Amino acid sequence: MDVLNQLLDRLLQALGQLLVNPFYYIGILFILLHYRKQIQMERKLFHTRLHSLLNETWRTVLWGWIGGLIASLLMLFIGVSVEADVVILLWVLTVVLVMFRIRFLCLAYAVGIMGLAQVILSWLPNSASLQADVPILSVVAGADIASLLVIVAVLHLLEGFLVGFQGARMATPLFLERKRGQIVGAQQLQGFWPVPLFLLVPLAGGSTLNLPWETLFGSNLASGWTLLAFPAMIGFTELTISKLPGKQARFSASLLYLYGLILLGTAIAAHYWSPLILVGALLSIALHEGLVRYSQWKEEKQVPFYVHSPRGLMVLSVVPNSPAQDLGIQVGELLHKVNGHKIKTKTDLHVAMGLNSAFCRLEVLNDQGEVRFLHRAIYAGEHHQLGIILAPDQDALYFTEHRPMHLFSYLRSKLTGLLSNDSTKSM
Predict the structure, then answer these.
(1) Residues of the chain with confidence (pLDDT) below 50
(2) Nearest of 415, 418, 348, 419 to residue 385 by alpha carbon
(3) What is the model's pLDDT at position 418?
């Protein structure tokens, strides 16, 4: 009971540290800007919004807390060693990196860079004098890279869970221009979570009690321990033209699990044999980039799925709280017949909808080719197309381009199309 009381006391102190830490609020501000930009793009493309700024933000923050507490509970049995100065330096590195690419808003890159810097610093003959002259180098030299790699690994395992659990719900439909000028439908799955971690760290005189359990890295906790607040950001961005959102989310989650498990094993080995720190730092960056490139390469080889076919019009998305959602129409289904008339073009759809302004009968084909029969009354003021967002045709006024981008270009970006010469590029 005494240990539990001390844990609660240290947790309250760490919570106070978190609430005054500006980096945690920087993460939340980024999420607000991200969802604001996403909603602006939805209004431009579809003349309606598919997400709510406040709802998505509070849900993201809530799941960040849930994930952070789960990860922190796991960390209680690891006993990593992290200093406050190291946390600050990692956040500074992350902020600098995100200026070059949005997807660098990930602890893996900052920890990898710090690990490589520590190894290079140890090779220099005048390392001690450099650390004395440049205080930041002493922070790098004193960082426990193995512990940081464990944190990166656990965060990516957590990210894999969140992506698999929430990734499909966070999908945003896009009109995408391919290399040969073909405009196709796409789904962009992206999410960012601010994750507060509370880490069990060694501190001389920090506790008068021994822990009742052994920690993996716990040899340095004998003289005392405390909890350190570590605000972290996790997030992912995937673009698919060939898969349903749920299938893409599961694929992305599997890659994140693979990355997390490989890095976790390497980090534990590096804790016991320090030369492996170089391997862990390289894997933190190179394996992360490799999995991202692999996902993109595999996607480029696929045939576009979100295109119309002779069997009907492809459903790219459904407006929330719309008649289409009430009917249970799903992304990836084809509108085959409306009011008994076969649908091949958007003109066919508008004509068929106008045949009966009070009632609508639909035949839709799911991704297995099976027919579903749906019907519903239509009321005044409802969406003219039942709230169905169709895949684009070659007459689309606006579309996006798939190019890497940094933070400021993302916030300033606009849609490409007949009425604009600017670009919205991918992360």
Answers:
(1) 418-427
(2) 348
(3) 43
